Amino acid sequence: MKNTYIFALALSAFFYISSCSEKPLEVSENKEVSEAQINVNQFESNMDKPEASADFQLKAIEYHQKIEETFKKGQNSEDDFSGYPGYYGGAYINPQGKLVIFIKGNSENGKKNLTKIIGSSDFLTEPCKHSYKTLRKVISDLNAFKLNKSNESKSQNFNMYGIVGFSNEVTVELDELNDAKIAEFKKLVMNSPAIIFSKSSGRGQLEAYQ
Length: 210
Description:
This protein is α+β, with helices and mostly antiparallel strands. The chain has 4 helices and 11 strands; from the N terminus they run E-E-E-E-H-E-E-H-E-H-E-E-H-E-E. It has helices spanning 54-72, 107-118, 132-147, 179-188; strands spanning 4-5, 15-16, 25-26, 43-44, 88-93, 99-103, 124-127, 158-164, 169-174, 195-199, 207-208. The strands form 4 sheets. A 4-stranded mixed β-sheet has the order 2-8-9-10, with helices on one face. The radius of gyration is 17 Å and the shape is elongated. Residues 1-52 and 204-210 have low confidence and may be disordered.
C-alpha cells in the first residue's frame, strides 16, 4: 500500500478547497468531506518500495520540520507567506526516502542557507521556476475566489486544485477540459505561469484532523 506523507503549513494531496489546518490531512478511502479543502504541499513516500528506507524518511521529515519552523517564525496568519525566502520552492520525499528541496535561482547559495537551517547537507536539491511563496499565494487567491459566492458561475468548472510538491506547480483540475475552457479560466479566474491544467478525476476524498 502506498503511504503519502504530507507536511507543511497546511497539508493534503490536492483535494477540495477550504481553510488550512496546522494538522495534517490524510487520504481516506471512506470518509468524504462536504466542504472543499485546499492543498498546500505534498510529500510522497513509497513505503512499498524496498529501496525506501524508514530511517531516511524519518530524517527527511525532521529536516523539513526544521525548515518549516524557521520560515514560519513571525508569520501572523496562515496566509502570511513573508517568512518564506524567494529561493525556496518547496520540497518532497523521493522513493529512496531522501528530502528533495526545490531551489529557485542560485542553487549553491540556497543550499548553503538550507544547510545552516537543517544542520546537515544530507539532502538533495532541484532547480525550479517558482518560489513556494508564489505557489502558496496562487492557492490562497484561488481559495478566496472559489469561496466567494459572487463567483459561483465562474468557478463551477473547477473544484479540485493544489500544489504538486514533486513538480513545483499548482494543478487545477477542470471538470470540462479543453482549450476554450482553459482560456476561459485564465480570463475569468487567474492566469499564472505556475498553474497547469488536467482533467478532473472526480470529487476528492480525505479525512481531516482539525
